[in-house]
């Protein structure tokens, strides 16, 4: 008799449901299972810093200098603007609608209040983005400083490697990055158990009231996704002078594949084909923007992280200052770098950003339980954001074939 093997997503959902049931039935008697979830989160977290460091260097260092020129600057500008807008939508939605209210988690044993209460000035916050000692930043796990260094190192490597003199170094970094991805893939096999244990602890401690904030979070994220998509389509309709009907037709397959695979990497081939054939983007533009966007740009993840941070702060009854809001937006942007193609990228990115603003790491367990549903919205925003950027750059460079829209208008 053949036994059906469930994929990891199904296993995580089963683990979440079993964990909630165990917590509701067992109550405080099963609260000790939290240690299993904590071990899983630590295993994820241990590979995050080297992964981000190597992934950013590889992504930037692999680009020829000519691609880091005019087109590279335009691409980076569009990526930055759309990602900031996405993060701000997530931040405002969380602040306005309070999805985390109704659930009160304990801060016992954490230093979150102190970290959130004693924040540096805006000037010192900006200066804090730049490291004085990269080894100190690595030792302390200062994510923003590490990414800033990696960006500059990647640019220097790209420039120095024009004649392939540093190809061995680039190959070594690429191999280390792949090994780290393999390590996280291995750790993610434990996700059903780890997430199930965390959900059991949360429900054992707080009861069934934990379900409502998670539902509110998903509804808000879905509404934010629709709002952002409307804004992107309106922008390219007006700025690139192309009909909305043609845009909807051109993006239809891309959105369907993104929703069903919940993977930016799995969507890339369809994204590139349709960008050229159905959306009129010249091959030169699509081959630069779309793979780079998959590795370095993530509108969906930025919105998710910003909304998640506000929601988690509300779980603990913590007020968020304007400085913390700026930090959340900045972290939501930089945490996207290199994590989009990693298995469980949303969970990995949360492991980067949550400790950085002083929130307890175990709070990730709540949103990890609904990560697959969140992944649908994240992936749609990611691939549509990348493709929209490609259309805008193609229009600016006069490399957009509008004939394909006329046939669908």
TrEMBL record:
Localization in the cell: Cell membrane
The species this protein was found in: Loigolactobacillus bifermentans DSM 20003
Membrane topology label: Multi-pass membrane protein
Record keywords: Cell membrane, Membrane, Transmembrane, Transmembrane helix, Transport
GO MF assignments: symporter activity
Transmembrane intervals: 12-31, 43-63, 75-97, 137-158, 179-202, 217-238, 250-268
Coiled coil: none
Pfam families assigned to the protein according to its UniProt record, in alphabetical order: SDF
Gene3D superfamilies in the record: Sodium:dicarboxylate symporter
Name of the protein: Sodium dicarboxylate symporter family protein
Gene Ontology cellular component terms for the protein in this record: plasma membrane
Superkingdom of this protein's organism: Bacteria
